[in-house]
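Researcher: Re-running this chain for the archive, since the previous output was lost when a drive failed. Same request as before.
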Amino acid sequence: MSTKRATLAELEPQANFVPRHIGPNATETAEMLKAVGAASLEEFIDKVIPKKIRAAKPLDLPKGKAERTTLSYLRQMASRNEVFTSMIGMGYYGTVTPKVILRNILENPGWYTAYTPYQAEVSQGRLEALLNYQQMIIDFTGLELASASLLDEGTAAAEAMSMAKRVVKTSANAFFVDRDTHPQTIGVIETRARAFGFDIVIGDPAKDLKPSEVFGALLSYPGSSGEIRDYRAIIDKLHGAGALAIMATDLLALALLTSPGELGADIAVGSAQRFGVPMGYGGPHAAFFATRDEYKRSMPGRIIGVSVDSHGNPALRMAMQTREQHIRREKATSNICTAQVLLAVIASMFAVYNGPKGIKKTAERTHRLAAIFADAVKGFGYEVTTKAFFDTVTINAPGRAQAILARAKEKRINLRFVDADHVGISFDQSTRRQELERLLTVFKTDALERVDIDKLDAKVAEAIPAALVRKSSYLTHPVFEMYHSETEMLRYMRRLQAKDVALDRSMIPLGSCTMKLNATTEMIPVTWREFAMMHPFAPLEQAQGYQQLFEELEYMLAEITGFDTISLQPNAGSQGEYAGLLAIRGFHHAKGDTHRDVCLIPVSAHGTNPASAVMAGMKVVVVACDDKGNVDVADLEAKAKQHAANLAALMITYPSTHGVFEESIKDICAIIHANGGQVYLDGANLNAQVGLVRPAELGADVCHMNLHKTFCIPHGGGGPGMGPIGVKAHLAPYLPGHPVVHGVNPAAGRDQSQGQVSSAPWGSASILPISWTYIAMMGGEGLKEATMMAILNANYVARRLAPHFPIVYSGPGGFIAHECIIDLRWLKERTGLAVEDVAKRLVDYGFHAPTMSFPVVDTLMIEPTESEGKRELDRFCDAMIEIRREIAEVEEGKADRTDNVLKNSPHTHQLLLGDWTRPYSKEKAFFPLSYINADKYWPPVGRVDNVYGDRNLVCTCPPMEAYQEAAE
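Model: Regenerated structure tokens:
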């Protein structure tokens, strides 16, 4: 009997990504459906999601494309970007990413799929890299303390302003900004100040600054024009008036310039982009923030500190992490809940690989190129208005600026347009001799002999004033001297990676964080030259590929969410919240309702919600939840009516933070609208909605989308992220604009009244191809299937664990949404154990812990995502069930309440040496289940002492002997 032969068409490559992204196969899916009591996925979803909130129509998106087809299409899109030599500067510079770092960190899932290092024991590698970053920033800035990165330079400057107001004793309400500051930084500061009610004064610090009338001042060093000024006298006057001095500075320049700390500055901010991180059309880049030790308790952002583990060995952790660095609900001073970890790691490794000598040489070469250029153009008859400079000069060419820019473009060079009479030129690590020669022909248009660079070099003088030449050393810690060969560097990065748990090792079951597959095909375009090497302020005609990407991604996101307009500018979920609330604020103000400032927020909300509301100038009123985890509608309605005259907004997460689909969501939105408010829907849990529910159809007016959760941008160890917002048409005029791009090109802009929330016009543009690629390969049906599988996986885990651990919340029929919360509140009273003991014991089983004590104290919140197959889900459930047996041994008195396998976890390899004194076996400690034998994860440290770390705050690199002792 013959079998029908497949046709060639059937044998051709098909769109095959959906089954690669979704973990469970058909057989596993059927088994899980049986376990939850459903015959099909559709029947199952009908039981979980109330019909009245289901989307009105299917997603109008193309069918999923094959991986090869997708990359081919994206290649054509990228080819529409023309990458010229960028000499625009303005905080963005060409750099050379060492290939060993490019391949082994930026392109390595062991680094880019890791989560925020809340669980220190499984994060020692990236914590060490971040500690190196802090040490690098401390050294260059000359200040005592640095954070582990902020979102971008503009955000860092705005955070510095807020911190200054917080710590000074003066009653002044004005903040001074040096007019020679990058315009995008000024824009972010102005937006933040407007909502806080601060007055901004922009001017020349030498002429316009009145120290007694300000609480702080931002001084640019070097300035955006390139000018270097000695601010010592001005800083002394600020201190005399009780105000803080903040310096916006440049890391490479500080290799040659006296540090801000030595000049007397209280805070230094800037970007680490030029330390090996591509410009990427604006991001992502790690900003830095450094300050004096006396302000450590007021400092925004994450701080990595040195503590000890249970064996007395040095161990790293996020210091003071329980306060989430000033996200203090309605008392918030910042809503920053993330960082740019992956980019900070790259920058720190750039310093490790190059060392102090390599970085100084790069700085000297960059400065020399600028000095040679300045000397040459003076000889051509131009006036160089910058007298003292590092890498940037401004040329005075009355009435000829546009013509010079046009000639430079003909040579494929982009310069900075300052105004009709002035042009800015910046040099960087990537500038080559031939580019300098080509640039000089732009300014010397006659056919005279070629300029002799070496002859100019022989006679050119340094352009840094003697009083500001750096004399202090930097990068003196041995870590910056030990790994200069590629062999050593390769091994150092591998050693650090091996200390951590990332998605390449096991499922990361964190609730609220959606740790799903970041597919390799999605990551490929990030490092393509056409995406990676673009300056964010390059002329729009050179960035048509990016513009196409933005348009297509905006359409995709609008179709998925139901909103009319999308803004891609917010470069984190927290910034999306902030931008969305500013849009609501702008809408009310435009109607004359400036008094509307009350924001209702359920008690279960993410901590960033009330923080963002405060930053947007709103007053937080907390709404209760019922015993099932739903918003208490009666309480909400009562408070909406009570504050109707001043109601601005409701912030609500959907599905709820408690992991259930609330049936009353449409009624809730209607109540808010009836009382004059707008609805902000927190999109953190959008992964449970795509293809099934549209936030806009629920009644929301604005929603942010965590692209690093639902749309596959990897977490990178705690950043990068992206938090675009979608709004209905009436809020569209109040989305963020940008003074550089939108100001020069009015057609590309929108109402500027709301200002900007991020330094770059389209946020972290270079990682947007990841989300575009994911959506293109999944297609509308694939996205819907992914959502259904995420919900099924969560319910399967809940059903397997329910006989062993109570599930805190569930909806009708006992179903949950995309995450489940298991109850451990009984644990301490009955056993003396704590939820932390369960989390740390999971490390011995090779797993990162679920989310601890959020949103309910003493619980674990688990979100498995659609990318995890049944085998991995079962492996995790088996671990949790075995841990429950270990708990039972304590509960029944078979194990000691203080000396047991949970209290002593995690167990390190060091315990294999010497006498074994534990009251349980080594096998129980290290290999409690058979699957562990095949691929044992050995935690590099025992349980980290958080209290010791906070009482003895050390945020700089320990001596190398400490690491050596720990290894022995």
